[in-house]
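Budget justification note: compute hours in this period were largely spent on complex prediction jobs such as the one shown. Inputs:
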Amino acid sequence: MSYTLPLNYLQEVFSTEKTKRYFFETKDFFDSLKPEQGGILPKMSRKNGSWTIKNSKKIFENDFFKVVEDDVLDPDEKESKYATIDLKPGVAVLPIDDDGFVYITRQFRYAIGRFNLEAIAGTVEGEDALTAAKREAKEELGIEADEWLNIGRIEAVTSITNSHADLYLAQKLKFSKPETEGTEELELVKLPLAGAHERVMQGEITHAETCVLVLKAVARK
Amino acid sequence: MSYTLPLNYLQEVFSTEKTKRYFFETKDFFDSLKPEQGGILPKMSRKNGSWTIKNSKKIFENDFFKVVEDDVLDPDEKESKYATIDLKPGVAVLPIDDDGFVYITRQFRYAIGRFNLEAIAGTVEGEDALTAAKREAKEELGIEADEWLNIGRIEAVTSITNSHADLYLAQKLKFSKPETEGTEELELVKLPLAGAHERVMQGEITHAETCVLVLKAVARK
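Corresponding output:
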């Protein structure tokens, strides 16, 4: 995903009033300027809100995230450094069957070093978010669905990470064999939506994407 | 927070069956082994679920997060690299007054490059989570409260990030002057809980901590 834009358009976007407007109105466009999207990272000093970014240095990059450290002038014009993490966009899916059961996973999560109860979740791999959601549901739990509903996006730790997940409820389900990768240690957990909700309310399910999926699924009823 | 344990205890913990049990039963203890807690990072090869970590290299560290890249054998015994991000533990607070209004913020968030509607949020600075929650509420919005309720923890992108936020509802509020730092551009937004809930349900509020706070606050009623 790479954007090519004429330079004057770019300058217009980075001028103050316009920038404000674009921040609010066209997040997608702003996203295209973020380095992780393969977008434009201008060499010239530029504004980020009331911060001035004088220089950006890539610290680390792999298939899943990128760490960039900026030399900045903070809103008080003081020199400082600001490091941020751009994560690959994500999706999460909560399948709900006709009898009100939901299908989640119990899987080992490397970064937290333990097994966790989580909705189907994965990253968007050069496709649209819905396609990624459908792919992950099929791969992880062998679930296909006739009805897909986008119930919003979540972003966590927005001061430091540029990371979002688009959330989907899947209904009218069909089940087949999962296509789990070798490195995924994953069990299917089937439970009533009300039971999942109780676990979220009790703080037993902590996975942010799953909490929001379950809470919104119940609130919609 | 630093733990000193006899070596044989450590070996016991890293042996397979025991490890499994500890993963499930004592997350706090396992957390103490994580580098970001000032814990023990053994030089010897060790297990992380079905992964074997042969070596760990710190890529980057600042006051807010740390990136570590591990040389691993994946569950299929294939050599690979696995990079994770440890973020400083966080807190988020939703103050609700006696008339059912909630107090959130509209603030510029550097990593996403735009203003965002978010509950009070911050990091735990060598204190317990409740103390951090109280401090952040006072600093950001000048809010103190007589009733504090922990409504659980959230964790996001658990495959890559070790990051959690403890969530609090604050009630019986008292208002004074905020103690915002110079670099925080922050506005108070007061709205009925039902209004906040609608914005979450519509996908207009995307901040994960805020979504879960608002959804749980409504679900508790």
